[in-house]
Every structure is written in structure tokens, then in C-alpha cells.
From TrEMBL:
Region Disordered, residue ranges: 350-369
Designated name of the protein: Related to MTG1 Peripheral GTPase of the mitochondrial inner membrane, essential for respiratory competence
SUPFAM superfamilies in alphabetical order: P-loop containing nucleoside triphosphate hydrolases (SSF52540)
Pfam families linked to this entry: MMR_HSR1
Compositionally biased intervals (Basic and acidic residues): 352-369
Entries under Gene3D superfamilies matching the protein: 1.10.1580.10, P-loop containing nucleotide triphosphate hydrolases (3.40.50.300)
Cellular component per GO, a single term: mitochondrion
Lineage: Eukaryota, Fungi, Dikarya, Ascomycota, Pezizomycotina
Domain G: 157-236
Organism: Cephalotrichum gorgonifer
An annotated GO BP: mitochondrial translation
Key words of the record: GTP-binding, Nucleotide-binding
Gene Ontology terms, MF aspect: GTP binding; GTPase activity
Length: 369
């Protein structure tokens, strides 16, 4: 053994001995500042019955005295649909932010949205959620009907993006307004249940509810199909809609939705998932912790626990991983959304052409790589 190699070993030993006396430096966790949206995720969910429903809404709009437009409070700007915005010009509108209990941590967003609707003529906002009384909304509907002063009563549309809670709202208004518990609109926890305009359902009126006859024959509400956008240019908006179940599961791969959820959880507070994992930006590590805790193991080819991914997504959807909203709601984001509404929306054919061009570009990029 050479003297040089001996000195190297002695130095290494002394260094190791010294470092053993010094506690290791724990680097603070740094969450991802931005999310890199995969280029190949789906950008449309505009189906045939969406287009047909939109045409029927436009045709019957002149008979409507009030529009209830539902938007999911967890994505209040992303679920503001430019197609509906242009179609619904005319009647007074109440924007109903559904599932507001699932965004309870965002008080500032609620104030900003209220200010937005106060500034728009003929428009107001109401926030509803699970267990929330519908009295404020029913009063707004009753006031509009009295102002309309029609002997035949007032017809009302309930409209919005897929799976924002339109049918659930209709059933709730009928129950609270008329005292009738049976459901008249079919509901389910996935998009696409309502596929055509429903039969008008009375939610207010009658001798007991309106003895003075101020509402004429009453207030009738018509359920409508959810209407998506032909094309979503912002990929992160598509991820938000997938996370709130605004499109069918698996159209965006479950592991990507779970990864986006992890990104948002880290922005809010990594302690939200502390029982599953230490703070991490690695979705595999996060889902391994979920699978270990819950016993939900079913790995994909990429090594992702898909059962754990679906389970944790549902936990967030049900409010068990924090009650936050996905959109940033402030003066700047609201102004940006207003500007977006003024941009011409792609038709279905244009959207399909755009998707085809993007697929071709991705394939060429892969071949070039």
C-alpha cells in the first residue's frame, strides 16, 4: 500500500468521523412551481348531444324568463363556458356556484366572484353546496317571476357544463319550493346523465305557496344537457375539469390526474397528505404511500398504483383532502377570462382538425427523437 493511498484512507476516515458528529442538513421541501401538462392529453369532450342541446336551448330561449347557470365552485372560471355565455344573452341570469362546500377554504374567491356578478347587468350569484338551504336562490327566482308578472307563470332553464350539479339542483329546488321529496331529474356522479331537454317541472306556485296568485301558474324549471367546449386550448384547464369529474374518468390517464392533484396539494399544504407520504413531487412515491395505507394495489406498466390513484382522487372530490378550489380567482384572472370569452370559439370541425394536427405533430416529434 503506497503512502499516498494510506494518507487518502486516513483523511477519509477522519472526514467520516467528523461528519458523524455533525447532524445531516435536511433540505427544505420545494414544491413544483409549475405543472408541465403532457402534450398528448385530450383537449375536447364536446359530444353530439352537447351540440344538439345547445341548439335546442338557443331555440327555446325566447320563452325563458330566467336562466340558472351552474358552475362548479372548485373551478369557477374554468367552468365558465364561452359557448353558453354567447348563447344565453338576453334573459336575466343567476349564476349558481354549486359544490361550494368543497371550496370552503377560499373565502377571497367568493368575494371576488360576487363583485364580478354585481358589475354585470341582469346578473347575480348564489353559492350552494351539500346541506345548503336554497332559500336565497328561491327568493331570487320568486322575485324574478313576480317582476315578469305572467298569468302562465315563468319558465326557467338550468344550464351549465357537464356534471356541475344541474339535475341535483333541480331536485333540491322542487323539494324545498314545493315540499316534494321524489326526484324528477335523474342524477349520478358522472357526466352525461342528462342528454336532452327535460319536461318543465314546477318548483314554485300553487294555492298554498302563492295564495295571492302573484306567480301566475307558477315557476317551472327545465333541465338541460351539460354543454362542453369544442376545444380547450389550455391543457391545465382540461386537467382541472378531469379532476372535478367534468369529463369521464380515464379520458385523461388516471396517473396524470393524480399527479396534478399532488401538484395542487403541494401548493396548498403538503400536510394534507401526511398520513400517506412525506412531502414529495414524485407521484409514484405518493401513490405507494397511499397504496400501503389503504391496501389498494394495482400497478400500471409505468409502475403507478392506479387503484390508489383513483381512490385518492375520489377522496379529494369528496372533500377529504382539503376544501380548496383549483382556479386562481383574482382581478387579473377574471380579466383574462373575460378576454378569453371575446375570442371566437372553435367549431367542432375546427376542433377536430386542431386535434388531428396536434397528433400529427406529436408523432413527427417522436420519430425525430
Amino acid at each position: 500500500m503506497s503512502k499516498q493511498w494510506t494518507r487518502h484512507l486516513q483523511t477519509a476516515a477522519l472526514s467520516a468521523s467528523a461528519s458523524a458528529l455533525v447532524p445531516p442538513v435536511i433540505q427544505p421541501f420545494v414544491p413544483r412551481a409549475t405543472y408541465n401538462v403532457p402534450a398528448d392529453i385530450i383537449r375536447s369532450y364536446y359530444l353530439g348531444h352537447h351540440a344538439a342541446g345547445l341548439r335546442e336551448i338557443a331555440t327555446k330561449l325566447p320563452t325563458i324568463g330566467l336562466v340558472l347557470e351552474c358552475r362548479d365552485f372548485r373551478v369557477p372560471l374554468t367552468s365558465w363556458n364561452p359557448l353558453l355565455e354567447r348563447t344565453l344573452l338576453g334573459p336575466r341570469r343567476v349564476v349558481v356556484y354549486t359544490k361550494s362546500d368543497l371550496g370552503a377554504e377560499n373565502v377571497g374567491a367568493r368575494r371576488a366572484l360576487q363583485e364580478l356578478h354585481r358589475s354585470r347587468p341582469g346578473e347575480s350569484a348564489v353559492f350552494v353546496g351539500k346541506g345548503t338551504s336554497k332559500k336565497v336562490l328561491l327568493k331570487a327566482i320568486r322575485d324574478a317571476a313576480i317582476e315578469e308578472n305572467s298569468l302562465t307563470g315563468m319558465r326557467t332553464f338550468v344550464v351549465g357544463m357537464p356534471n356541475v350539479g344541474k339535475s341535483t339542483l333541480l331536485n333540491s329546488l322542487r323539494k324545498e319550493g314545493m315540499g316534494l321529496k321524489s326526484k324528477v331529474a335523474m342524477t349520478n356522479n358522472h357526466p352525461g346523465v342528462t342528454r336532452k331537454l327535460g319536461t318543465p317541472v314546477r318548483i314554485l306556485g300553487g294555492k298554498v305557496d302563492d295564495p295571492a296568485g302573484l306567480l301566475g301558474e307558477g315557476v317551472f324549471i327545465v333541465d338541460t344537457p351539460g354543454v362542453f367546449m369544442p376545444y380547450v386550448s389550455d391543457g391545465e384547464s382540461m386537467l382541472r375539469l378531469a379532476l372535478v369529474h367534468g369529463i369521464k374518468d380515464n379520458l385523461v390517464p388516471t396517473e396524470i390526474v393524480a399527479d396534478y392533484l399532488l401538484y395542487k396539494l403541494n401548493q396548498w399544504d403538503p400536510a394534507l397528505y401526511a398520513k400517506f407520504s412525506a412531502p414529495t413531487n414524485d407521484v409514484r412515491e405518493f401513490l405507494q404511500g397511499v397504496a400501503k395505507r389503504t391496501g389498494k394495489h394495482h400497478k400500471s406498466r409505468a409502475g403507478v398504483d392506479l387503484q390508489a390513484a383513483m381512490w385518492v382522487i375520489e377522496q379529494w372530490r369528496n372533500g377529504h383532502l382539503g376544501r380548496y378550489i383549483l382556479d386562481d380567482v383574482n382581478a387579473a384572472s377574471i380579466a383574462a377570462k373575460k378576454a378569453e370569452l371575446n375570442v371566437e370559439t372553435l367549431s367542432m370541425n375546427q376542433a377536430r382538425k386542431r386535434e388531428k394536427e396536434m397528433r400529427k405533430a406529436r408523432q413527427e416529434a417522436k420519430r425525430g427523437g
